[in-house]
Amino acid sequence: GTHQALANSTNQHIFLQTLRVKMENSQIKRYVRALIDTGSQKSYILKSTAEFLKYRSKRQINIIHGLFGGSELSQKHDCYDVTVSNNSYSCTFEALDQPVICNEVSAVFHGVWTEELRLLNIQISDSYDDAPIELLIGSDIAGKLYTGKRYVLKCGLVAIETLLGWTMMGKIPLEKPQSLSMISVSLFVNNASITNLWELDVLGINDPAERMTREETALAAKEFFLETITIDVEGRYEVRLPWLEGHPALPSNYQMAKKRLENTVKKVINDGYFEAYDQVFKDWLNENIIEEVFEIQPTKVAHYLPHRPVIKPSSATTKIRPVFDASARERDSPSLNQCLEKGLNLIELIPDILLRFRRQSIGVVSGIRKAFLQISIHEADRDFLRFLWSDSEGKQIVYRHRRVVFGINSSPFLLGATMEYHLSKMLKESDSKPFSKDTIMKLSDGFYVDNCVTSVANDKELRTFVEEASIVMAEGKFDLRGWEHTHQVQDGNLDISTSVLGMKWNKENDTLSLNQDDNTTEQFENKLVTKRMMLSQAQRVFDP
């Protein structure tokens, strides 16, 4: 028989070989944490996980577990065939059910090893939160999964490649275990509190039990994205909308869109902006950003997005632009946003990006021109992105979007995933291209939606980065422009301050400050201060 080697407590200063994998049975899928334990003769699946996936027991077997001290324990187990996979590999093997596999096992967190892994282009499979271990891969399977690739890092940890992804093991380097452990705990608590603030303010109050479900759906959306991304005839990346599995039926919203169109037309006519608003759609049509639909009452499923104008008379380039309302919904029906996966909360990336921005002596920022509009939407999803417009003669026109739409909650995810895919592709081709791997890694670490925020050591590196980064992004039809950097005012630029991820950056003094209005105090004067007001002010510290 085998023994239950990990049913006891684990050392929190040791990384064990954990993986994040997908388990499935017919139409049921679940992302779980798995542990490779070569000290166990057999593989085990958490009993509750087997029940969730509706695995059928092949048979029952009796196993005698050898425990510490020489004692033995006889247990009866159901035996299942389980299917485990990642993006590139899948395998099926036998596993026994077990009510509890082990106590908490830490996932790989950030440390001195993070930068070395990045330079080696190693992505650790299990780098999320410390969810329970639901699958134990024993020595009966583990040996078949190892590829033979391994790296001993400078800190002493060992990165090992398996067919299911990279894993890491070894003693976590802590020079002063007592004091550093306390700091780690404090940082974790503070980080969790900040995360909860963003979730409360941006995402709404969530049941803690739903945390894994959110991660699972985000991972499923990323996997679907990688399976479906292509390049269209124009050489642009083309993506599918990340639909939530089992989402309710999406209504057409046609009558609502028609009613709101009437109000929009009245407004732009009264404000004297009808011609300018109409011209935006004509320009989009000429640029293949939208296309006309000639079936006003389609026989197939379609969805219509209401829109309204945002008017900025002071803008030098875009005085009026449409904003599409993907949260609009009919009574007792979902909105488009409620049917799409929006990905992970990007706000939490900002502190890390700002730290990298301050790492070297010259800060540098830029942005992608009309970033969302550079990515094509697959034809199968375009009918869910229809909208109505009336021309100068009052004739109703039906359009549909051909590109990613700003205003849909999944658009930042689609943009981020596309750029990550593009940069990964460029990294593989860098040996034969006029740019370095260092430039690609800086871009990978520096993007927040369509803004690139990073730093370089000197003027020579600045010139090289600007030139190479522009080439890298142009390969994916992205125009990286609007470059600003430290001490740029010496180059004749009179604008000393600019916004960096919602903060005010003085390029001459190279200082960051909170971008708060001067009348912040007046807003609270003679008013009852509520939690909503406090959270609103707190979020404005990072409000890109």
TrEMBL record:
SUPFAM superfamilies: DNA/RNA polymerases. Gene3D superfamilies: 3.30.70.270, Acid Proteases, HIV Type 1 Reverse Transcriptase, subunit A, domain 1. It comes from the Eukaryota. GO terms for biological process: DNA biosynthetic process. InterPro entries: DNA/RNA_pol_sf, Peptidase_aspartic_dom_sf, Rev_trsase/Diguanyl_cyclase. This is Uncharacterized protein.
